[in-house]
Amino acid sequence: MPAFAAVDIGSNSVRLKIARLSGGRLHPVLEDRSVTRLGASVFRDGFLSPDAIAETVKVLRRFHRAVQQVAAESVRVVATSALRDARNSRAFVEWVRSATGWRVEIISGLEEARLIHLGLISSLRLASSPVLMIDLGGGSCELTISSHKRIRETVSLPLGAVRLTNEFLRHDPPRKPELRRLRGFIAREIGRGGDPIARLRPRAVIATSGTAESLAAVAKGLENGKKQQAAITTRVQVRRIAKLLARRTVDDRKKLAGVGPRRAEIIVAGAEVYAELLDRYRLSGFRYSPLGLRDGILAQMLLDHGARSVKQVESERWDSIRAAVEHYRVDMDHALKVRESAMVLFASLKSVHRLPPEYQEWLSAAAMLYEVGDYVNRNGRHRHTHYIISHSEILGYTPQQRRIIAAIARYLGKSRPVVSDGPMKILPPSDRVSVRKAALLLRLARAINLGRGNAVRKQRLHMRQGGVQIELYSGPRASVDLELWALEKEKDYFREVFGRELSAAAV
Predict the structure, then answer these.
(1) In sequence order, what are the beta bridge partners of 504?
(2) Which of 195, 260, 425, 480 keeps 20 to 30 A from 133, CA to CA?
């Protein structure tokens, strides 16, 4: 039974969750968490402090030992707001790699929200009507609207509890002018990103992370342990708690049930964010969930592993790709035809290309996106395509996966992938070989659909005497001469890459 490990390097705390796959589902094995305040100095002066780096690396070493003891098959390490903003994030990444061997992946706020959403829908039963998901961390606040287990809208705001505390709250307890400035900033930031949320009119709210947990615990304590309706922390309670916390010192806040020593230092700012969100959207309250980013990371790892239980969430990737196709004004019908041909080639030539199974997904994405560079300029469009795919927010793919997809889509002109080329240099050696093969499959798929007039109704492949023959079936009164010519041009390259002869014929 394989085990997977997820590490979430946040601005306030670092979390580890290890789960083992059994019966098609992940079962938790170990969880660990430590507050390191990695982002505190970032939000002050733009740099990770040496002390915070050292403390975080110390915790990560502990996590590394735990992962080794469990013998986890795969580990994914993700960093969020603090590393996104820090000017010396590269030094931190290299230090972690030296200490543990782990590669730290710095994800965007939108990808963070997507993974949190994935973690929630993989484990919770949600209403079909729009649900607002709130994840308030140390550096940012992610707002996601989910409907029928699909993301409808995502907003990432710079409203983390550590960030706001450092920027606005200088005294203990905070003074009234400080609170006014804090509330004004929160209101303005929510106003900038809030229109999509208001338009979708969510009625249910699920909140994750430490601030929500503490607010729910304080609300329960104030009710003298009475059972709250459906475990909901109401808007009235949140506003009351926010005022209560702002009047108390840190030492007094520590005494409240559910507020730990470190949470007491930043909970005033976090409570104000929740109060404003619930007031702004006229929401009745929120339900706290202990699930979070690490659960989404594990769910994505399970999806990439091929487990059927989370196949439903593959639609997130597809939705993001279709959105990119529309944004960059790519011919959708043509892209779908090229993708269809690429998938036929991948399946029919498995014994020839011997690509890893995940390359089917990367090839599919590259087939949909290979023309996005035309949006910038047709001159150098293949280079533009590589840049756009590598740097765009295509949800559901890690930066490394986007680089692979971009490299597959890059080599459809006269140039061919060579190790010395920039897009190939940044890939691991094993992926350089695989990208070369996948790029050739995409070249063939494009050649089969070169005329854009749907001349080719379908294609079939046959293995004959050590070679490969592609048969093109044309539509009524249609000619496939252009497509046959395009395939003829790929014969030498096909022989070079696969060591086999390629032939094409019209049927």
Answers:
(1) 470
(2) 260
